[in-house]
Amino acid sequence: MASKVGSPIIPLSIVASGESMPSDWIFPRRRARGLCKVVVHEPIESNDKTEEELAQSVRAAIIEGLPENQRPLE
């Protein structure tokens, strides 16, 4: 959608969310533990990029903000 209107995309990396709120916790009943970190990356311009190129750029930026143990396997 951003590529169609030419607006920039701001990628966000969320670090340690699975540790502070495990998937087996029921959200309203239990309080989260620990802290998460949100990394705000530089905006990525969408002008002159295909949707696929833009998706690859955003994905790379998000992965760059994650610690090694949270990065996807290549």
Notable features of this structure?
74 residues, 30% helix, 3 helices, elongated, alpha+beta, single chain
Present the secondary structure layout.
Elements: H1 2-5, E1 12-15, H2 17-20, E2 37-40, H3 51-64
Antiparallel strand pairs: 1-2
Mean pLDDT over the full residue set: 84
Unreliable parts: none
Helix content: 25-40%
Question: SSE order, as H and E?
Answer: HEHEH
Terminal Cα separation, in Å? 27 Å
- Principal-axis shape equals elongated
- Main sheet specs: 2 strands, antiparallel
Strand content: 5-15%
Task: Explain what you see.
By secondary structure, the chain is of the alpha+beta class. It has one domain (2-70). The chain has helices at residues 2-5, 17-20, 51-64; strands at residues 12-15, 37-40. It is elongated, with a radius of gyration of 15 Å.
Write a short abstract of this structure.
The chain is of the alpha+beta class.
